Amino acid sequence: MPVHPSAILDPQAEIHPSAEIGPFCVIGPDVKIGAGTRLMAHVYVEGSTEIGEENVFYPYATVGVASQDLKYHGERAYTYIGNRNRIREFVSIHRGTEGGGLITRIGDDNSLLAYTHVAHDVQLGNHCVLSNGVTFAGHVTVGDWAVISAHSAVHQFCRIGRHSMIGGFSVVVQDVLPFSLTTGSGREIKLFDVNKVGLERRGFSAEAIQALHKCFRLLRDKKLNTTKAIEAIRAEVPALPEREELLAFIASSERGFIK
User: Fold this and answer.
1) Range(s) of the domain holding residue 233
2) Of the residues 64, 96, 100, 138, which is catalytic?
3) Annotated catalytic residue: which of 69, 121, 144, 175?
4) Has 138 been annotated as catalytic?
5) Residue 87 lies in a domain
6) Contacts of 138 (CB under 8 A, 6+ apart)
7) 73 is catalytic
8) Is residue 188's pLDDT more than 90?
């Protein structure tokens, strides 16, 4: 195991022989680090934290530290990070809390850019991009392939749907629909249209993209409330899997959704 002599590793930590621990890193006793993962320098990892394979942590990232939630009183809680993630400079990832299932979870193949904050009990999917300065409050859920642009903030308990994109400097206080392009702040935040470029890159068919475009047009129609818009979607849009996913997301929304 390549470990810099200035690093501090608790002897109870479980670190794969192929992992790399750089200068001035600090690793706590309940930490597990998988094969090929690299901590470049000044990375601090504590708590009951499990990190998978082939991740790269850039300098000054902190992982598994105690939640800032004032209701957290030291209960044993967990942080899980999957494989092949890129965690950039000064990213902070906090462990879970009793009120949120006791675990903060990050999936595979995500990019967390500099100064991103992932609060307690966040559930982040796979292939997501969190740009510089993105801030999640606790209990946020993010679907696969979501892109959150720079310096956006997401209110606690919000959900961000799969394949959605949020514009820079947005303030999100309600759920963000899957497949959508959304940007703005507070009452001014709006669903603009389907995330066409992102879906084309992911191989979605022209038929699916056109169907989603019609769904969003109906949802934005000022003459239709949500109930009427959903009725129109069911009547006018082909029953593709993407349509069904969108409608199921709307039906399960507890905070309301941005349209």
Assistant:
1) 199-251
2) 138
3) 121
4) yes
5) yes
6) 67, 69, 97, 100, 119, 120, 121, 122, 156, 157
7) no
8) no
